[in-house]
Amino acid sequence: MTENFRVELEADQFDELCKPTQPLAGVLELVWNSLDAEAENVAVSIGRTPIDGVDRIVLTDDGHGMTYDEAVRDFRKLGGSWKKGQTLSQNGKRSLHGKKGQGRFRAFALGGSVIWSSVAEGTSGLERATVVATLADAEFKVEGPEQLATGSPGTTVTIEQPRELAGALLGDNASDFLLVRLAAYLAKYPKVRVQYDGHPLDPATIRENEERVSLRPRPGVGLGTPQVRLVEWRSSVVGFRPMLLLCDGNGVVLHEITTDLPTSKRKVTTYVEWPGFALHEDRLMLAEMGDALLGPVVAEARSALGDYLDRRDADSKRTVIEGWKASNVYPYPSAPTTALEQTERAVFDAVAATAAPAVAHDPRAARLSLRLIREALEQSPGSLHRVLTEVLDLTPQQLDDFDEILTTASLPSIIEATRTVTDRLGFLSDLQLLLFDPEGKTHVNERDHLHKILAHNRTWVFGEEFSLVVSERSLTTVLKAHLKLLGRDTTDVQAVADAGGNTRRRIDLMLSRTAHGPTGQRHLVVELKRPSLTLTEKELSQITQYAIAVTKDPTYHAPNVTWDFWLVGDDYDSYIEEMTHQDQLPVGVTSAKHPYTIRVRRWAEILEENRQRLHFYRDRLSYSPNEEASVTDTLSRLLPPDRDDDASATRPPDFPAT
Hints:
Layout: E1 2-6, H1 11-17, H2 23-36, E2 41-48, E3 54-61, H3 68-75, E4 111-122, E5 125-134, E6 139-147, E7 154-162, H4 174-188, E8 193-196, E9 199-200, E10 207-214, E11 227-233, E12 243-247, E13 253-257, E14 267-273, H5 275-279, H6 294-326, H7 339-354, H8 363-378, H9 383-391, H10 396-408, H11 411-436, H12 446-455, E15 467-474, H13 475-485, E16 506-514, E17 521-528, E18 534-535, H14 537-552, E19 561-569, E20 571-572, H15 574-579, E21 589-593, E22 596-602, H16 603-613, H17 615-621, H18 631-638
Parallel strand pairs: 2-8, 12-14, 17-19, 18-20, 19-22
Antiparallel strand pairs: 1-6, 2-3, 3-7, 4-5, 4-7, 5-6, 8-9, 10-11, 11-14, 12-13, 15-16, 16-17, 21-22
């Protein structure tokens, strides 16, 4: 029999799944479907045109296949997969990857015509079902069941009419893309064989090194200890992107994290394997946003990656140095005997090992190169000591401290910490110029300048513990972000009105901190005002209405969640002065009613708090920021790149384009 039907889905859903910009992701989904069908052998072949373009894509597997009835059931609509709520494959052999009933439609990211031919054990023995579909009309035809006397279960997917970016399947990084994402699974199930374009996908062929690290056990959830697999790939791997992959306990990748990872020339993929990720799969997007359960696991995995990179770099430097010593090209003939010599040697080793790729391999040339590096650092015998004691005016105790630092932290870490402190000191100086320059501050406003400057990785001004959740968004969006942090569904959330009935209010910045213990989740909402504006009752009333909206709507109630609302400006009038100096309330607080506190803050106070926090570093670095810069130059440096089509739309009219 034959059954024709159109897939029951919205056009935008179908378009999202079938984006031609992601052909390799489409291949990966087809492979995962085969692995979910318990296939032990999966092969993807790429047919080529006479001019070496993609003609067709064919995937074959030896999984359990699908019967005619299963094909009609599974292809009739998007979603509703039998896998939903399941953790193991049909016969209990493996962990499941797909659970949403969407992966099969990713085939249309590759081509406009797809045929699934599948053999499976039916009620009357082996039977074949064939599904023919076209992208143009989303129409599916299921043919069968065809009874078979011989054969074995499996599925063949044939994709023709390749789409515009299908050429990426022939790129140098195609197999590496698949390998990196399948590596943990292939390690867990060593009998599984996946082949791509005639070549087996074997992680060992591109793996340089691998380490395993156990994180802290997660008490109270009964899911054991998260395991981290750090896989370092060979430098020849092309198109590599650092990733932290959240996997279930069997290595099935559930979510990719590509932001806030330590930078390195090493190509390392971090696999975090933990059953808790599968149990809380609907919250994986919040793992980077302070989720109380998942966030700490991700943070520890990031730390494990950083430790691994430091350890590998240190090992590599030692190997390089020992190689030079063995070749008799190292410029120091004997071991250091004093603290100063140890410091000098540590600096040389760090610099020379970093420069190792540029050092010649010929012994005579290498000896000369290393000698030049040593002389460049020393300039003349005793010169380094004079620089430290006379030019930098360091005391003997400070010399010992410097030596101790070099033995307990890597030189790159010291440089990075110094850069962070100096950059922040410079930013505070720039911000003071924008806020308090008598003429310039009239051109600085909250939306186009202060908001963009601070949201661009500078929310540390309001506290090191906070991270940006949303910026310049409506009250409804802010509260949706709050619900997401709590792991709640936001699908049916309606527009939220403030206490004055306005649903169009916008909040500049919402920051969040998750604390472990009785303090729970804390949100900081910052309402920025341009420096030329004096804060009055009007501005205080506005942020008070925000706070009331949060507390009155029962949708957003949650235990152990508190809200701080800050109204930040350059100065305020006598009314605000009175409201910020009330009996039994801290100075600056105008209202404190659980779960919210409203506070008015001057920029001068915030800047001074940051200066005090950096006081120790500022004095010892003797750093003097540039005080000659104009407001125009400062804005051009601090504002992030404008992503609007019209880059001048947010530039103050009195400022020339830079």
